Task: inverse folding
C-alpha cells in the first residue's frame, strides 16, 4: 500500500470538495482519500491517498479519464505536486 500527499490549486474550492469525480475514478481502484483545504480565500487544496496499486493509480492519472476528472474538478494541473511516503 502506497500513501501519497497531493497538493494543487483549483478554480473553485467548494466545487472541488463536493465533486463526485474522486470517488468515481479512484474508488474502483480501492483508493481512499482524505481532503484538505488551505486558508480561507486560498485556492490551494490537497489530499492524502492510500493506494493499493501505485502502477494502476499512475496509469489512471495519465489516462484521458484522469485528465477529464481533473478538468471537471477545476484542477490547475501545472500546480500539482505529488509526495510519496518515504
Result:
Amino acid at each position: 500500500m502506497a500513501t501519497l500527499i497531493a497538493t494543487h490549486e483549483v478554480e473553485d474550492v467548494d466545487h472541488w470538495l463536493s465533486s463526485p469525480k474522486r470517488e468515481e475514478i479512484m474508488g474502483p481502484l480501492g483508493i481512499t482519500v482524505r481532503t484538505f483545504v488551505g486558508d480561507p480565500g486560498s485556492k490551494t487544496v490537497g489530499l492524502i491517498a492510500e493506494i493499493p496499486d501505485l502502477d494502476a493509480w499512475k496509469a489512471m492519472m495519465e489516462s484521458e479519464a484522469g485528465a477529464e476528472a481533473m478538468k471537471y474538478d477545476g484542477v490547475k494541473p501545472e500546480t500539482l505536486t505529488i509526495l510519496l511516503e518515504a
Residues 5 and 48 are 5 Å apart (CA to CA). The beta strands are 2-10, 32-37, 44-51, 75-84.
